[in-house]
Structures are given as C-alpha cells and as structure tokens.
Amino acid sequence: GIPGANYTHPTMRHWLEKSGELCRKYNLALYTTTAMNTDPAYMELVCSHANMICMSSDMGIFSKGCQRVLEGKGF
Asked: What are the tens digits of pLDDT across the range 27-41?
C-alpha cells in the first residue's frame, strides 16, 4: 500500500483492478481491508473488485478467528 492512500489513488486503484481481474481469471478470492467509509461511490469501487472485504472494525474478530484455526481450535 501507499501510506495515507486509499483505492481512489491511481496506483492503488490500478492494482485493485488488476488483482480483481487475476482473481476472477483463476477463481481465487480477493481479500482486502478498508476503513469505515460512508461514500457509496468508494464502497462500490472496492466491492466491484474484491469479493471478501473486512472493515476496520472487523479486523480483531477476524484475526482471532484465524489464530484459533491455526492453533487447531476451530472457529
């Protein structure tokens, strides 16, 4: 990433679009994180390319779940 930039930055947007294209081509999930954003156009941009999105408020829950799986404890 680029410090302080989001997906409206030209370089970030390019790689979001390119990553989305490759993930669709190879049937892979594209996971990204984003801060809470109430701008519908921005969220449409992110959602149109990524198929697994974690908002900043979800990160703690998601991280703990991943850790439990890695430790063999399940969800």
From this structure: 988 877 766 666 788
